[in-house]
Specification:
Blueprint: E1 2-6, H1 13-27, E2 31-35, H2 36-42, H3 51-70, E3 74-78, H4 84-93, E4 97-103, H5 106-112, H6 117-120, E5 140-143, H7 150-184, H8 193-198, E6 206-211, H9 217-222, E7 228-234, H10 237-247, E8 252-256, E9 269-275, H11 283-296, E10 297-308, E11 319-322, E12 325-327, E13 331-333, H12 337-346, E14 349-357, E15 370-377
Parallel strand pairs: 1-3, 1-4, 2-3, 4-5, 6-7, 6-9, 7-8, 9-10
Antiparallel strand pairs: 10-15, 11-12, 12-13, 14-15
Amino acid sequence: MLIWITGLSGSGKTTIGKLVYERVKQINPNTVFLDGDIIRKALDNNYGHSLEGRLKGAKQVSGLCEMLTAEGLIVVCSTMSLFKEIQAKNRQNIKNYIEVYLDVDINILIKRDSKNVYSRNTSNVVGVDLPFDIPAQPELFLDNTNFDKINQNVDKIYSFFLKMSRNNQKMNSSKEYWENYYSFHAEPTSPSNFAKFVQRYLIKGGDFIELGCGNGRDSIFLSKDPKLKVTAMDQCSKEVAFLNQHYRKENLKFVANDFTNLDNSNLGYDYIYSRFTLHSIDQSSEDRVIDWIAKNLHKGGYFFLEARSTKDEIFGEGKRVGSNEYFTDHYRRFLNLSEIHEKINSIGFEILYSKEGKGLAPYKKEDPVIIRLVAKKV
């Protein structure tokens, strides 16, 4: 995991970073603390303080963090590195990533000037004559204007770290559950009722992606339409390899990936399909997925969603692990219809169809209460 603490010079990055490191290291000895200034000296970074030089240095810091987290370490890194591409690189390459922005008004920093940065330099000062990119969606946006808030902000970062750690544990156990399940159920079964339902929206064809395809049954069924170019994604890599070996064709491919951590480098899609997958991830992951959908669905494209509702009869069964989240033999989170409506509307989508009830996804003797939704990007 990487806890990336960033902000302008004098915002308190190093002080807070050291305190967070001390807290985390108490429960996990495999924790290291990195400071941007110390890294610059250790790597003999002579890139200077221009915007281009700072970007080169930021890439070094990011690359070092990526290398250390890949070796299983928890890294607490205090660094300015206020570049969009660095923030995006971290999110793309480091799965467990906590971005913290310490917000302090530049006028206060100039008055405080604890490092004599703003008074001794007349040029190449970030926030004065050099632009910087405030993180667009940090996990934590903290006001660190007053020194008496330092301990409160450390508590907030540490609490977020604990929450993510717990979520990782339950997600890892759920991944193992599904990997084991598909080892015995590798062959695709009949398509779901939802796949048959959405066919009416696919008549023009185009690029289609399924987020969490499982054994591929719906994507295989929908790819019978030659006008569709189908990508089916799932994190169960062995199942994906099996499906590619036996069912891949010209307009259908299977990709092993975690759909909660996708970048924005593709050309976009005309259709994004999520059946029984949005309720299998936690709230913060859902927020990232919704944001990704907003950015990667073409204008006029369709988002298809089917998931378990908080009105489902099994809501509340198992061990509660969060808001609307329960764990039995695997993790489930139940969706609230009004909340998902609000999210979809907030990203510029028009809801064309919405239904909550039974009869949508019966399975053997079960008939759960399901949310079914079709939205169009306007």
